[in-house]
Amino acid sequence: MDLTYTLEQQAFRKEARAWLEANVPTEPLPSFDTKEGFDAHCDWEKKLNEGGWAMVPWPVEYGGRGADLLEWLIFEEEYYRAGAPGRVNQNGIFLLGPTIMEYGTPEQRARFLPKMASSEEVWAQGWSEPNAGSDMANIQATAIREGNEYVINGQKTWASRGAYAHWLFGMFRTDPDSKRHHGLTFILAPMDAPGVTVRPIEKISGKPAFAEVFFDDARVPAENRLGEEGQGWSVAMATAGFERGLMLRSPARFQNTARKLVDLYRKTLQSGAAIDPALRGRVTQCWMAAEAYTLNTYQTVSKLLAGGKIGAEASLNKIFWSELDIEMHETALALLGERAELKPGSPAAQGVGDWLDGYIFALAGPIYAGTNEIQRNIIAERILGLPRK
Predict the structure, then answer these.
(1) Same domain, yes or no, for 268 and 337?
(2) CA dist 341 → 5, 76, 282, 344, 353 (Å)
(3) What is the mean pLDDT of the chain?
(4) From CA 325, how far away is CA 375, in angstroms rounded?
(5) Residue 115: inside a domain, yes or no?
(6) Same domain, residue pair 286 and 364
(7) Which one has a higher pLDDT value, 89 or 310?
(8) Which of 45, 77, 243, 313 is the catalytic position?
(9) 107 is a catalytic site residue
C-alpha cells in the first residue's frame, strides 16, 4: 500500500476543497429527522449533484463522477473538513446503490441510480421486523407473486429514514413455506403505494428518525425485485457488507471526531479546569485508533482496486468503528464534566458543542448494521474457524 498521493489525486483534492469551501452552508442545517431539515438536506444533495459531487465513485451516467475509491476517500476527508451537512440519503447512496450496481439490471440501474444520487428519491431501510431484528432470517413479511406484481403483507419496524423517505428496500418471504434464509426476496417498494402505511417512531431526542411501515395487500411491480426470487439473502448480505465494511462509515468521520476531541482537551487544559490525568491517555488512544481505522480502510480500498472483495472481515470493521465512536464521545463527556449534560443552547453551556447528541447516537452503533454480538459470532466462525455450539 503506497500512501503517497499522485499529482492527479492532489488536484482532485484541491478541486473538491475549493468547491466545498464555496458551497457548504455557513450555518448548520436543521436535523434531517424533522420535515424542515429533511427538505433542507435534500436541497443540499441537489446542489452536490449539480456540482458533480453527490457520489463521486459512481459512473457518470448514473449521477457519479467516475472516480475510484481512493478519490472517494479523499473527497470524504474534504467533506468532513469543510463541516458539510450529513448525508440524508445514506441508505440509498452508500448501501442500496452499490447493491444495485452489483445485482441490478441495466434498466434498474438507469431507473434508480440517477435519482438516488440527486436525492430526488430518498431511501429507507426496511429489514427489521418486530420478531426479526438481529435475527434477520426470521423475516415474516410476505410478497406473493400474482402475475406481474408482488402482493406484500406484513410489518417493518425501525426503518431508518422511514418517516419521510420516498422508497424502501427490504426483504420479504416470497415462499411462505420456507424457513430461515431460504425463500426470501429483495424488493424495492414505493412508500406512497396504496396499502402502505407509515407511522413515525421518535428517537430519544423526540425527532422521528425511524418509522414502522405496514403493508396491507400493497402491490409492487415484479420488475422492482432486485436479484432472483428466493435469493434475497445473498443480495442482502452484499448490502450488509457495504453497511459494515467500507461505505457507510468512512474514516474521515472518525478522524474529524478525533480532531475535535483533541481540540476539546487542549481548550479544557487552557481553561484551568481540573482534568483526570488518565484522560490524556484516553484522548491519545482515540486519536491513534481513528488513524489506525483510516490506514485499515486505505488497505481495504487497495485490496478492492486490485480485484479483491470484502468478506467476513467487514464484521471486524463494524465492531471497531462502532466501539471507537462510543469511546471518543465518552471521553469528551468526561472532559466536559458537569456541562456534558447541557444542550448547546443552554445559558451555561459555554460552547459545549454537540457531544451529548453524538454520544446518544453512538450508543446505537453496536446495534444497527447487525449487533456486535452477532458480528463476534461471524468472526468466530468465518475468520477464526471456531466450531458452532
Answers:
(1) yes
(2) 42, 30, 20, 10, 11
(3) 88
(4) 17
(5) no
(6) yes
(7) 89
(8) 243
(9) no
